[in-house]
Each structure stands twice: as C-alpha cells, then as structure tokens.
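call fold(seq) -> tokens
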Amino acid sequence: MDIRKGRDVADRLSQIISSVAQHEKVLAVSAAQATAEHDVCSHDPWVNGFTFNTIPLTWGAFAYHPNDKGMLAVSRALQAALMSRKILPEQ
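ret:
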C-alpha cells in the first residue's frame, strides 16, 4: 500500500468515527489531529513506524499508532475536550 492510499484509508476511517460519534452524541478525540505535525516521517515522530520483527510472536510498539509522546498529546487533547464540555473540572 502506498502512503497516499494509506492516508486516504486513515482519513476515511476518521470521517466514519466522527460521523458515528456525532450521531450517537458521544465525544471522539482524533489522535491523528493531536499528532498531525509529528508523523512517522517527521523529525520528531509521535507515531511508531513499521519495523519487521524477525522473532515470531514478539511485538513491540504497534506500527502507525502513537508512541509515548503521541499518547501524551492525545491525552491532553482528551483532557481539553472534557474540560471544554464541563465534564472534567478545570485544573
């Protein structure tokens, strides 16, 4: 899969999640938006790249999912969303 097709799939999935969340009246926070300037090709990636593991049944970080910095950014986005909706008190 080329990178353009991968991004198209990710964008479509994000649209579906957002649409369903809106329909069901639930909160959805976008990890893609929270890590937008820090993709796998950036100088400071917040997303894990793909690495082929030669040892069966041993996995490291999941490819194309947020790393520690990315998860911190996602948690901050979630916290901000909850505080803006008065679900979580201001800190």
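The mean pLDDT is 87.
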